[in-house]
Every structure is written in structure tokens, then in C-alpha cells.
Amino acid sequence: MDKEVLLKFEGITKEFPGVKALDDITFEIKKGDVHVLFGENGAGKSTLIKILTGVYQADKGRILFEGKEIHPEGILDSRRLGIGTVFQENSLIPHLSVAENIFLSREIRGKSGLIDWKKTYEECRRWTNELGIDIEPRTRVSSLSVAQQQIVEIVKIFSQQPRLVILDEPTSALSDNEIDNLFEIIRRMKEKGITFIFISHRMDEIKQIGDSGTVFRDGRYVGSIEDISRIRIEEIISMMVGRDLSEQFPKRDCEIGETVLEVKNLTIPKMIYDISFRIRRGEVVGLAGLVGSGRTTVAKAIFGAIPRQSGEIFVNGRKLQISSPMDAIACKIGYLPENRKEEGLILNKSVKDNLTLPSVGSFLRFGLVQRKAERRTVEAYREKLNIKTPDIERTIKFLSGGNQQKVVFAKWLCAQSEVYIFDEPTRGIDIGAKNEMYKIINDLAGQGAAILVISSELPEIIGVCDHIMVMHEGRITGTLTSEEATQEKIMHYALGGES
Amino acid sequence: MNKNLKSVKNKGGREWLSAFIPLVFFVALLSVLSPQFLSASNISNILRQVSVYAVMAVGMTFVIITGGIDLSQGSLLPIVCIAVSVVLKNGEGSMILAILAGLLAGALSGFVNGVMIAYISIPPFIMTLGMMNALRGAALLITDAASVETKYAPFRFIGTGSFLSIPLSVYIFVIVAIIGYIILSRTAMGRYIYAIGSNKEAARLSGVNTKRTLIFVYMVSGICVAIGAILYIARLGAAQPIAGQSYEMESVAATIIGGTSIMGGEGGVIGSILGAIVMSVIKNGMVLLGVSTYWQQIVLGIIIVIAVVMDLMRKKVASTKNS
Q: Given B10, B187, B202, which is nearest A344 (Cβ)?
């Protein structure tokens, strides 16, 4: 077990105004490992990656890569050194083909100086074949699924022959079989001697793919894990949060009342067909299914963000004419979108402005916003949801993901919604914050709200919901109660299985 | 360290500083270079000139905060002048009605811009560029390329009169600025304007009526142009159909110098007013120093580009410091 050391961090320290993002970090990564970085959001993983790729410069400390001290000055520079990075948001150009993307800025030219397309496509196939991937080099990237695009991104990095590849939450937008596919590719690359740094918040998959790991907390090194397969997830979690999370999914005990939301025969041709369900007071209903099965479309259609072809929506027995989010909000429906940064938040505005955006009309007197009343309300939610921000005037992009998500939750609490639609409510946030989200959901249910939760994380949907509906290709293929639900049963329906 | 935190916190309200520093600089420079610069008559002259631009810049600020632009501002000016002149008939008609007719013309033009941009999703640049050409053509067509006049003294007083030895037009632009400031900072509509400029989809999913808000800002721009046009024709007593040419560029420049981001989502009217004053001071200074008008155009162009570069640099500094 004496593998040679590929990368070593020595006393890395990085300070930002007001926070010590990294404090004297020292650890090493062995060659050929998939090395997992553990830690809650804000623990310092991203900062460390940014120092490794030269986006930031460390205040103190050294990085030794293959025994030599390196000082990367940016992503391109780190790539030259042999460190490839697959970004959370992929960096492909949608209108170009797969091959064009892979060889972007390294075009293969013929003698004439023009691009040698034949050779480009050959080279492209050579790299994809090597990883056992079947993608036609001429395909436009925009016509690929998110998962396929990510694979193209990985091929692109792979073709640059790196020794170390950084994967920062590569699976957050993937369904389970797509993840298996990705892991297969990672294993192939490992066989070719490539080392990985892997960041993910999904504990189950870390067990599958990770070899070794390092745990961070609040910018400090907590400990190293030599062999991930020999450690229990609970142990890692308690290292990360510094306490035992005995109950990952807090229990809920609330009375279920009359129907609040009823959806009948919701249809949008080519997207969703004949969706009918009801949610009662105090009930949490889950909507599971693979990415692209139409879950988000259902949510957005109820919320009026996508026009629906046919179907009826009732709230408290009253039929609604919803043709825009404005109408839905007026009917006390709140929607937490799956992409927090693109759809949920106004990133360069303050916590306060974001929190009251849907409800700012309720703070008006003589047409002017009553700032004191508004501030008082926002402070109340800040305290209630434990939103960590130095100030409610703080620009929201400077908050951690979990705290940002709490603001989106608070937005709809403040709008006094009765029906909540949570689309991937815990995506990209750490375990501690996830736990708080579940508590908020339980509190809301306790207060008599009707809640729809969409999630790709099966343990979460089973742990949080009373009922689970499973979608496949735009239709509900099965409904399970939380007692009978297992990951296998959900997957069975999600893949189109019969009841 | 504390200082740094503070600058993050107040980032929303200090954009106007970006216009204040050049203003102090140019005022200091010109008072050294030209003895006439600080004379009462010259200052009053600058203030009268600046009124038109400042009012238009307030409207432009609303539009630019939503991430748009209104290139039709300059061409709308003669149209408003025509409307005022036709209704006023040199004093035979009602002055109030003439002013209302001018405001209505401005609001209508803005309404058309807003509806096309909000409902048909025409890029603001293209829509208002088309409007710019159409209005200029209309002005030439209606007047047969001749100038329109208003000789009625009480109306002229708006542009030429003073109160407490400050030009009346200064009071008007200050009132417009205050109203603009209140709308942007204290009303729900103001929130929506910033929200749309920062992230239109998130705003829509938060229940913001994006279409109504867009129509509103273009109407504000049109009405501001109308107020500016009324000040213009009241001061000069006549307007050519080619009047107001390239005023939209001055207005954009004033807005950006004032710290409003060309990308939308950030900014405010106080900065734009200061920006308009900076522009007028520079132009006035060039006249006093005998710089040719052609050079003035070149300088204007350079200033716009510098202002945008500064905006981008501000953003870059802010994001590397705090991410």
C-alpha cells in the first residue's frame, strides 16, 4: 500500500476580509487515488481547489505537485502543469460540435493552415473510444443531455492528458444510471494512472467511487481517511459537522387535514401527460423520477411559469385561473426553483431585497415601502431560519449555498404561501444545512401547509415525504407511501416499470 | 478589515461617487484654466444646459437599470416640441394643455417601445434604434424640415426665468430627480426594476410583473424626454426637427459616468444627475478654452468608453475581493 505521493499541500493559508477561509492546511494525495474532499459548504474545499488551479493565490504555504513546488496562475496555467478541472457549470460552447469543443483552441491544422477535419474527428473518436464512450464527434453539444455534455467535458479534459483531474460536484445534475456511467469512465481513467480530486455532497456515491479522503471543517484540516471503504458514513459526517447527526431526517408528527392543492389532468404536449394528484393540509408529497422525466415541468406548470395546454388546478376547492407566477403567488403558491442562482435569487441584491421580493407589496404605505417594518420582518425570518449573514443588507452572493437557500425558503414563508413547491431544495448544500431544511419543511407541514418536494436524492425523498409519486417520460408511473417506498421500488417506476 | 466589510455592505448606494470625483477634478481644473468658468453667468448657463440632459438621464437610468437602453430619446425631443408648439399656438391655446400634450407624446412613444420590448421580446437596442429613426423622420415630415416656434412669454418663462436667482429649470430637474430617486429606492416598482435588471427569470418566478415593469421604465424615459424637451423649447423659443441629435448618447454617458451599470441591476439617479453635470462642465470648459466642436464629439466618445471600462473594472475588483 505504499503508493507514491502526487500532490502535497503544506501549510496552505488563505484569508478573505473577515474570514480565514483556509488555516494551515497540510495533507497529501497519493497517485492513482480518487481522493474525496469532505466538508460542509464553507469548509474551505472550493477555496483550496481555487488555489490549486491558480484562481486564488495562497497567503502562506506551498503546493508540491510531483515533488516540485508549483505556483499556478490560473486555470490555463494549471492545465499546462497537468491539472485538469471539470467545472460544476460546464464550459462547453453549445453551438459547436463535440469535436470542435474538445479541440477548442488546440485545433488540428493541416499543411494549408486550415483545420484538418478528418484528423480532428479521428482523434476525437480515439479519445472517446479509449474511455469506452459512444458519442458522434459531429453532434452539436446543444443537442446532448446534461449528462452527455458532462461526459464531453471530461473527454475534453482527458484529451489534454492530465495527471490530476478535479471533479467538483459532477453528479449534482445527474440521475442514478448516469452517475454509474460517469463512475465507469472515472474508473477507466484511473486505470490509465490518472488521480482524481472529487467533491460531492452525496455520501452514498462517495462510498462507491472514493479511495481516500480528507475532511475539512471551518477552513481547518480535521483528518484524513486512508480507506473510504472501511469507514462508516456516519463517522465521516460527524467529522465534518463536529457532532453526531443522529437523525438525518427529523420525524414529523402532524395532523393531515382536508385537500389544499388539487391538480387534475395537467397536460403539456410532448412534456407531461395527464398529471393528477392532491396534497392535503400538513402533507408532504414527493415527486421522484429521472432528470428530464417532467418533474420540474409539472412544478412550473402549476406555478404558471410554463403555459399549460389543459388541466385544472384547485386550491382549497377553488378552481384557479393561473397563467403566470404572479397569479400563482396571489393564490398562495410558492415555488423554490431547482437552480438557485439562475432562478431563485437576484445574486447582486441584498438578503433583504431577495427575501421580500414576492411580498414587497405588503409593506407599502402610500405607495412607499415601510423600511422599518420590512427590516423587522426580515430580521424575524433571519432569526427563525438561522440565516447566517453579518447583516440583512449583505449582498446575497456572498452567503454560502445553504444560507442562500434559506433565504429562498424565507421568501415564500414571508409571502405567506399555503402551498409550497420545493424543487431540489437541498441541491448543493451541506449536510448540516440540509438537516435544517428538513426541519423547516416539517414546521411548515405542522402549520398546515401543503408541500410538494421534488428531489433526485432518493434517501431524502423517502425520508421527508408522506407519499411519493414517481414520473417517467412525462407520466406518473407509480405512487408509494413512505412506509412501502424503497430506492429500488422508486427506480423501478422511474425507469418506466409497470405497477 | 472592517472597512472592507463596510464597502461590501454599502455597495448598493455609493455608485454616484464615481461621478463625484471627476466632477470635483474638472471643476478644479477649469477654474484654474479659465477665469470665466466660475462666473455667475457661466454657472447659470451650465445649469440651464444641464437641465435638459439631466432630466433625460433620469429616464435613461430607469431603462439601463433594467438592462435595456433607449436610443429614441434624442429623436423624441423634436416630436414633443412639435406637440407643445401645435397646441400652444403661440399663446392662443392653453399652456397647460400644451404641456400635457408634450408629456403625452413622450409617454406614448415610451409605451410603444415598452410594449414591443416586453411582449414581443425585441431587443431594446433594436426597438429603440428603429424608434429613433422613425421619430426623426416623422419630425422632418410633419414640419417639412422647418423649425417650430413658441413665442408665448409665460411658457418661455419656464426655460428662461429664475427664482431666487436660480434658473427655474434647475428646480424642475431637481424635482424630477427626487421623484426618480424615491421611485427607485422606496417603491415596489423600484425593487422590480432592479430585480429585472439583475435576473429577469428569478424576478418573474418571484411574481414580478416583468412586462408591466418594462413598459413602465420606457414610459418614464419618454416622459423624462418630454420634460427635457419642454425645458429645451421654452429656453430657446424654437426647435429644429433635427434638434436633440445624439442627446441619447449624452444621456447614456451621464448615466454610466454616474455609476449605473450598463449590464443592468445597479445604479441610481443621483449619479446620473452628477454625470450629466460632469458632461456639461467638460463641454462648457472646451467652449471656454476654444476647443473645436469636432473635438468635443471625439472627447464625448472617449468619455463614454472610459466610463464603461471603469464600470467593468469596478465589477472585477468587487468580485475578486469578495468571492
A: B202
